[in-house]
């Protein structure tokens, strides 16, 4: 009997020991499964499930559609005013970078919701002051062609796709979009002088007939200006190397090199020499560094084994190397954002016909100029707006005719005539603002500014 009691106690202890472990395993089950081929369909499903599970911290939207109707999804993580930007799968065969983007989103969202630190980082503190935007799959047509071949595309284009693939029906090496244009050779930085270009549509290496002509690239440029990120990270594969410099101005060199050194310390990725990359161009981070003057990085994950995708078995090691990168970049991005003089503004109230215009802020004063958020005002006054992300210009058509202005330029166009403002329209925290005098001149509306409070009152013409 004594022996039986001892055995029973042992069984009870085993059950008690295994019970919590089983519960723990169930608790850590994730939406994003890094062990599967990460397709456009899986991506779309997972984004929706993450937004439903973490509604306070995750949002998503389409920033455009491909030629074959696939959405280019953007996912926002966080609630802060400062922004940073991550993206993956510019190239069709590099879809493991999409898995990395998505796994990063879920791991950070879970840590935020549970109120725990992640790899030593205060997730809530970071994501309450910074928003990390992701476009996990820039090129969903290319990814789909690489993964499934011709069956996912209309029969009418099969022969054209085969020609672009040099006569082969095996698309495992495919990098381009479904038009045979390489999206990471399409950005308008040294585009005209790109070397090793193929002059017709092809599975890789064709830069197109002009910069920013693909739907994928147009969406990315427009979205970048919309969110106004402080730092960008564009994941590619393969090689475990890090591109961090493209003709970076001397004034920014030490800033960017410091970040590159930390990136290397975290990931072990070898830095590519600035001299090696000086004759490149056309890539997303090349464009970002040159046009926005801000840090940008292209990490190449994994070790290449032939002209095809990385195996899913490569994911655990690349995740280990990169799992803290998103939170670290968000922290660094916030520091850059907070140091900017334009982020020390004086918000003021804005009224249209006696009704308060909502915004965060709707208007502000900076260095003697009062700026107003143009979108709610022009829409309320009956104007239809069109944004051109390539030129950073807005065209407004309405009761007083056509009004066109460009971010960063004091010269605007009103019914074909040039008008000049004392200050230029600009972005603040991803929202477009315009000097109140320029806007009211364009729409023919009287306005007043309270000398004590700075409150702006506009009346409809």
From TrEMBL:
Residues 1-26 form the signal peptide. This is Peptidase M14 domain-containing protein. The keyword Cytoplasm does not apply. Residues 36-333 form the Peptidase M14 domain. Belongs to the peptidase M14 family. The lineage of its organism: Bacteria, Bacillati, Bacillota, Bacilli, Bacillales. It holds the Pfam family Cu_amine_oxidN1. The keyword Signal applies. The active site is at residue 300. Keywords: Hydrolase, Metalloprotease, Protease, Signal, Zinc. InterPro entries: Cu_amine_oxidase-like_N, Mao_N_sf, Peptidase_M14. Its cofactor is Zn(2+).
């Amino acid at each position: 009997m004594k022996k039986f009691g001892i055995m029973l106690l042992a069984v009870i202890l085993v059950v008690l020991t295994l019970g919590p472990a089983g519960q723990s395993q169930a608790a850590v089950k994730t939406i994003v499964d890094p062990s599967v081929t990460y397709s456009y369909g899986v991506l779309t499903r997972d984004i929706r499930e993450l937004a439903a599970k973490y509604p306070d911290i995750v949002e998503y939207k389409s920033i455009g559609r491909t030629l074959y109707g696939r959405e280019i999804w953007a996912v926002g993580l966080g609630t802060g005013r400062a922004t940073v930007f991550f993206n993956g799968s510019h190239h069709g065969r590099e879809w493991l970078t999409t898995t990395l983007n998505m796994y990063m989103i879920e791991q950070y969202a879970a840590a935020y919701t549970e109120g725990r630190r992640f790899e030593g980082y205060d997730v809530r503190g970071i994501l309450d002051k910074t928003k990390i935007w992701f476009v996990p799959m820039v090129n969903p047509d290319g990814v789909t062609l690489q993964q499934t071949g011709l069956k996912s595309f209309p029969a009418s284009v099969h022969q054209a796709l085969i020609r672009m693939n040099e006569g082969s029906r095996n698309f495992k090496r495919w990098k381009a979009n479904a038009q045979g244009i390489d999206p990471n050779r399409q950005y308008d930085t040294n585009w005209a002088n790109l070397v090793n270009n193929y002059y017709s549509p092809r599975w890789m290496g064709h830069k197109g007939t002009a910069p920013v002509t693909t739907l994928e690239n147009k969406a990315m440029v427009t979205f970048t200006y919309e969110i106004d990120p402080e730092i960008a990270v564009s994941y590619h594969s393969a090689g475990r190397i890090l591109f961090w410099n493209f003709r970076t101005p001397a004034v920014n060199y030490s800033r960017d090199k410091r970040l590159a050194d930390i990136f290397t310390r975290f990931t072990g990725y070898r830095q590519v020499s600035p001299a090696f990359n000086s004759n490149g161009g056309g890539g997303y981070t090349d464009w970002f560094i040159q046009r926005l003057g801000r840090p940008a990085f292209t990490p190449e994950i994994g070790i290449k084994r032939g002209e095809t995708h990385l195996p899913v078995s490569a994911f655990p090691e690349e995740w280990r190397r990169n799992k803290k990168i998103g939170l670290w970049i968000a922290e660094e991005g916030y520091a850059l954002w907070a140091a900017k003089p334009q982020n020390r503004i004086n918000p003021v109230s804005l009224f249209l016909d006696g009704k308060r215009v909502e915004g965060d802020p709707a208007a502000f004063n900076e260095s003697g100029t009062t700026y107003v958020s143009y979108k709610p005002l022009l829409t309320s006054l009956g104007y239809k707006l069109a944004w051109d992300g390539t030129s950073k210009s807005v065209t407004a058509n309405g009761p007083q005719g056509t009004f066109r202005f460009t971010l960063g330029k004091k010269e605007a166009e009103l019914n074909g005539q040039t008008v000049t403002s004392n200050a230029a329209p600009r972005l603040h925290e991803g929202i477009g603002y315009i000097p109140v005098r320029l806007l009211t001149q364009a729409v023919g509306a009287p306005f007043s500014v309270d000398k004590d409070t700075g409150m702006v009152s506009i009346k409809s013409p």
